[in-house]
Amino acid sequence: MKRLLCAALLIAIATVCACHSRTQSQIVISSKLFTEQVILAELLAQHIEARTHIPVIRKSNLGGTLLVHKALLSGEVDLYVEYTGTALTGVLGESPQGNSSAVYQRVKQEYARRFSLEVTEPLGFANSFAMVVRGQDARKEQLANMSDIAPLAPKWRAGVGYEFLERPDGYRGWTERYGLNFGKQPSVLDLGLVYRALAEKKVDIVAGNSTDGLIDALGLVALKDDRHYFPPYDAVPVVRRATLERFPQLRGALADLSGKISEAEMRRLNREVDADQRDVANVVREFRAGKEL
């Protein structure tokens, strides 16, 4: 019996050690629940694997901002791409204000101080919230700016994701800034369905993202934020400081991606996946080859 217990104990110790060793020799990259995030997570994963040979576990579509952030703090995730305006308002709980550089520096400083997280160099594009209408409505009603819809709002139906409905830089502040009085409460929709709902006339305006490929593919129009409600949303990788200490070569790999993606390029990548139904890994592989990464 003693020999059996000793053997079982040795097996348990070996298993724990193996798991610990395996965990320490790899990194976990995650994303939120929409196409662009999945593409960016795959871009980080492919580039890090090629540049450093660090094994990468992909945990895409993990959840919303706060869920992914908590996973990062707990050590379940090592790295993901965030947007500076979202970090400022949704995570730090601060007012949506400041230019691109000021918001980036504030987020970088506070993430380091509060969370021991490093906000690395921006990827080169911003993905702002976009209030989107059907092309035929924009032409018929001569809509170009968000302020143009105020007379139409009482008869219109809005469609938004749950996160936009709840966040401080979201629905409530937007309607107040523009004096919008919609006749009904907004429909809460899955982010993957908002544009289809708009195209099928189930709603009349939706909260999307400026880099979404389906805006052009479905003939939709993003209205200009003429009252400057939304803060900058520059895409930035966020990584655990402990992970950088464990893998010093990771810093150089992330620096390689600084400024490498324009807004037009991100929109094209999103369109290839969403509208053309192409495989994410192949789309990213081709993009990396074109950038000689």
- Give the CATH topology of the largest domain: D-Maltodextrin-Binding Protein, domain 2
Shape: globular
- The helical percent reads 40-55%
Total count of domains: 2
Computed over alpha carbons, the radius of gyration is 22 Å
Instruction: Return residue spans where pLDDT drops below 50 for at least 5 consecutive residues.
Output: 4-22
List the helices and strands and how they pair.
Blueprint: H1 2-24, E1 27-32, H2 35-52, E2 56-63, H3 65-74, E3 79-83, H4 84-91, H5 100-115, E4 117-119, E5 129-134, H6 135-141, E6 158-160, H7 162-166, H8 171-178, E7 187-188, H9 194-199, E8 205-209, H10 214-217, E9 220-222, E10 235-240, H11 241-246, H12 249-256, H13 263-274, H14 280-290
Parallel strand pairs: 1-2, 6-7, 6-8
Antiparallel strand pairs: 3-10, 4-10, 5-8, 5-9
Helix pairs in contact: 2-12, 2-14, 4-5
Walk me through what this model shows.
The chain is an alpha/beta fold. The protein has two domains: 27-126 and 232-290, Periplasmic binding protein-like II (D-Maltodextrin-Binding Protein, domain 2); 129-222, 3-Layer(aba) Sandwich (D-Maltodextrin-Binding Protein, domain 2). Helix content is 48%, strand content 16%. It contains 14 helices and ten strands. It has helices at residues 2-24, 35-52, 65-74, 84-91, 100-115, 135-141, 162-166, 171-178, 194-199, 214-217, 241-246, 249-256, 263-274, 280-290; strands at 27-32, 56-63, 79-83, 117-119, 129-134, 158-160, 187-188, 205-209, 220-222, 235-240. The chain has a five-stranded mixed β-sheet. Strands 3-10-4 form a three-stranded antiparallel β-sheet. A two-stranded parallel sheet has the order 1-2. Strand 1 (27-32), helix 2 and strand 2 (56-63) form a beta-alpha-beta unit. Helix 2 packs across helix 12 and helix 4 (84-91) crosses helix 5 (100-115).
